[in-house]
Fold this protein.
Amino acid sequence: MHAPNPIITEKDREYMAMALKLMRQAGVLDKTGGPFGAVVVLDNEVLASSGNSVMRDNDPTAHAEVNAIRAACRKIGNPHLTGAVIYSSCEPCPMCFSTAYWARVDKIFYAASYADYADVFDDAKIAKELTLPYEKRHVAMQQIMRPDAQRVWEEFRKLPDGARY
């Protein structure tokens, strides 16, 4: 776990301004999706940047952060972005936070918070719902065929070169 660094530099503001420009481009001008933008930076180099493209791509996972993380990982040829910082126009939804977590991103700066757009997007509701027991969630979840899945996990664990990430 990383302790937050309270110092915000002019470079941080520059990268966030890029994310905010992408936010406006995606949501207001091009209307490719909601007003969200993200920039991935590693060692003061912009690896990738993107706006939201959910509507253009007909893909509910095409959030700005996910798009930018995917592009950054492809650029460096690695699923891990250790040391990277994401500048996001908005507080990342649970999916985007998880994607950053799995990519091993070190820090996320964000501009708008869930409260700033709770009237038009469900991010805060989804984050809260993830803390509820399965039976109280909006999307029903029910486990089946666990022993079959466990057998595949046992096979996977025995692979000497199995993907670990």
Notes: The chain is about 40% helix and 15% strand. The CA atoms of residues 152 and 158 lie 10 Å apart.
